[in-house]
Design a protein that fits this description.
Layout (H helix, E strand, L loop, with lengths): L2 H16 L11 H16 L22 H16 L1 H5 L5 E5 L2 E5 L11 E6 L5 E6 L2
Helix pairs in contact: 1-2
């Protein structure tokens, strides 16, 4: 979930909580409070709703895929099984960048080559593969 969507969802919760359209009777606000209490962990923990699935409590605070080296290693395994190990070795080194809890891992082309490389999107929190594509 993008930062804008998260902010809109939070704003809706708070507007519903604190609006005075019912004369200020708090008991009518209880359903709204319950709603916010239920969705708040999802809004805070998952920047992308596809990454909202539960994670073992033993997982690190930084998620199952905590750093670029791990993202690149996981990506290599997936990409090699799809496109062949020799092909993906030709796209090494893999480059990973993190944005909003999603690792984007892409291959690189040797100097002077034209064409596309493999790309995979991985959820930092739980390791879910969100997308796999090979550009031409």
């Amino acid at each position: 979930m993008s930062a804008l969507r998260r902010a809109v969802a939070e704003a809706r919760c708070f507007v519903q909580l604190f609006s005075d359209d019912d004369g200020g009777r708090m008991r009518r606000r209880l359903p709204a409070i319950a709603c916010c209490a239920l969705i708040w962990p999802v809004l805070v923990e998952a920047s992308d709703r596809r990454c909202a699935s539960p994670v073992d409590l033993a997982a690190l605070d930084r998620g199952i895929v905590p750093d670029a080296a791990t993202a690149e290693a996981v990506a290599f395994v997936y990409l090699a099984s799809i496109y062949g190990e020799a092909h993906i070795r030709g796209e090494l080194p893999l480059r990973a960048r993190l944005s909003d809890g999603i690792w984007t891992v892409e291959g690189t082309l040797p100097p002077g080559f034209v064409g596309g490389t493999a790309q995979i999107l991985l959820c930092q929190r739980n390791g879910t593969v969100l997308s796999v594509i090979h550009f031409k």
